[in-house]
Amino acid sequence: MLTAAFLVSVGVVAFLAVEVGPLIVNDRFRELREPTDPERAALDALREAAGLDVDRVAIVETSGSESVDVAVRGPPRRRVLFVTDYELDELDEDVAIGLLAAESGRVDAYYGEFRAVAVAAVVGLLAAIVTTVVPFGSGFTAVIAV
Known about the structure:
4 strands; Zincin-like; alpha+beta; four-stranded mixed beta sheet
């Protein structure tokens, strides 16, 4: 029973690390600010054209570098759109809509959630092998069989 609880907790922790970890890292270790009213209006128009629905928007300060980064992080109903200030100021509107549409496709396909489930399954399987719940005597054949 203790082994099963350990394996479940390893899978849950791996899932949360992949799903929520990037949101926490982006929020804590990047220079972020709230969009100004004109930026928010422009972003709302771009997001509507791209079909992207998020709960919050954060502008990443790039301090003069020509860095373009558009990322949606977080679980459903808690998604945050991270956009660099360079994208808002310098990029053509069609390019910005294309970048937001690509992120919208990832969000609609639950890309982050599928990735988190896959990582949790692999880490859980490795934990099962380490705790000898799944015998590894026959090598990788045991992994393929599971």
